[in-house]
Amino acid sequence: MKTSNTQLLGTLPISNLLIQQAIPASIGILVMSLNILIDTIFVGQWIGSEAIAAINVVLPVSFFIAALGMAIGVGGASIISRSLGEKNIVKAEQTFGNQITLTFLITILVVIFGLFFVNQIIPIFGGKGSLFSFAKTYYVIVMYGVPVLAFCMMANNTIRAEGKPKNAMYAMLLPSISNLTLDYILIKVFDMGMMGAAWATSLSYGVCATYIIYFFLSGQSILRPKLSNFFINYNTVLQITSLGSVTLVRQAMVSLTVLLVNNILFTIGGESSITVYAIISRMLMFATFPIFGITQGFLPIAGYNYGAKNWLRVRNIINTSILYSSVLATIVFLLIFFYSDFIPQIFSKDVIVSEQTPMALRYVFMALPIIGIQLIGAAYFQAIGKAKPALLLTLSRQGFFFIPLLFLLPPYIGIDGVWLSFPIADLLSTLVTIYFLNRSIRKELI
User: Fold this and answer.
1) Residue 359 — pLDDT band, cuts 50, 70, 90?
2) CA dihedral 158, 164, 170, 176 (to 10 degrees)
3) Cβ neighbours of residue 277 under 8 Å, at least 6 residues apart?
4) Closest CA to 168 of 225, 201, 208, 207
5) Which helix (H) or strand (E) holds 166?
6) Angle formed by the axes of helices 387-395 and 415-444, to 10°?
7) Of the segments 126-135, 258-267, 406-415, which one has the largest average pLDDT value?
8) Which of 33, 139, 165, 189 shows the smallest number of beta carbons within 10 Å?
9) Which domain range does residue 160 map to?
10) Number of domains present in the structure of the chain
11) CA 287 to CA 274: how far, in whole Å?
12) Among 440, 443, 361, residue whose Cα is nearest residue 393
C-alpha cells in the first residue's frame, strides 16, 4: 500500500496526474511567494524602502547557498524517481542518505566562508552606502539558518520524487505562515527592525525542517535509509552532482544576474532603482508560481515513466505541461500588464519608486507567456538524467543572452535597456529550447 502513490505516476491519466502533482506544488510556491511579497510589504511599510533594497542585496547570497541543497535535492530526486520506476528501492534509499550528508557538509562550509568575508561580499552585491548596515544586519542572522533551509529544499524535492506532492506542499506552507507571524511579532510588536525580519526568516526555516523530519521518521515515506546509506558513495554522489549542477548553475546565474543588475542600476539610478528591481523580483516569484508548480509536478512524472520506458506517456506529459503552463502564464501576464500602475503602491510610499516601477514591470514580463516552454524543456532533460543538455538550456537564458544584453543595451538606452534585457533573453532561450527538445523527442521517444 505504501507504494500506491508512486505507482500512480505510471498509471493515472496524464491530465489528472499533472493536476494532482502540480496543484500542491503550485499552492506551496504561491504561499511561499506570497510570504516573500508580504514580508517585503511589512519591511517596506514598517522599516523603509531602503530595507527592501538591502534584503534584495542579501537574498542572492543566501539563496545561492541554500540552492546547494536544492541542487542536491533535484539531482537526487531525478535518480530516485527513475529508481522507483525501475522498482529499485535500494538505490533510492542510498541516494537519499547521500543527499542528506552532502547537503550539510557543503552548506556549512560555505556559510563559514560567507560569514568570514561578510564585509567584502555585501558591497559586491550592491550593498553600498546607506544600504550596507541594513544588509549586514540581515545577512549575518539569515546565514545562520541557511544550512537548515538547504536541507528543507533538498528534502522537499525528495518528497515530491516519491509521489507525495501534498506533503511537499505542507513543508512549504508551514515556514511561510510562521515567517509572517514572526514578522508581525518581531518587527511590529517588538520593534526589532532588520534584526526582527532576519530572525523571523531564520526561525521559519526551523519550522519547515521540523515537519520534514517528522514526515520521514513517522513512516509516511517509502524511503527508510540505513546508517550505511549516509556514508558517501562516489558513484551516487557523481550522479547527484552532475544532475544537480544544472540547478546550482541556474541559481548561480540568478545570483550573478542580481549582482550585475544591482550594480548597474545603482550606477544609473541609485538606491531607488534597486528598490524597483526588488519589487520586480518579488513579483516574478509570485507571478510565475503556477508555471513553476507545473514544472515541479512534471519532474517526477517524466522521470518515473522514463525509467519505466513508457515513451508515449513521457511525450504526453511534455505536451500537456507546456500547454497548461503557457495558458496560465498568458493569464498572469495580462493581469500584470493591466495592474502595473497599482502594484508599486502596495510596497512603498516612495514617489520615485511608484513612478519607475509600472513601465519596468511591463518590459520585464513581456515574454512571460512563452516561459513555460523553456522551463519544461530544461526540466525534461534533468528528469531523464541528461545533465549536459539540461545545463546548456539552463545557461542559455542568463549566461548566453541576458548577461551580454545587460552590457550591450544600457549604454545606448539607459535604464530601459536593463528591463528590456529580460524579455529578449526569454525569447532567445525559448527558441534554443524548442530546437533541442524537438530533436530529443524525435530521436528517443519513439
Assistant:
1) confident
2) 40
3) 56, 261, 262, 265, 360
4) 208
5) helix 165-183
6) 160
7) 406-415
8) 189
9) 4-444
10) 1
11) 20
12) 440
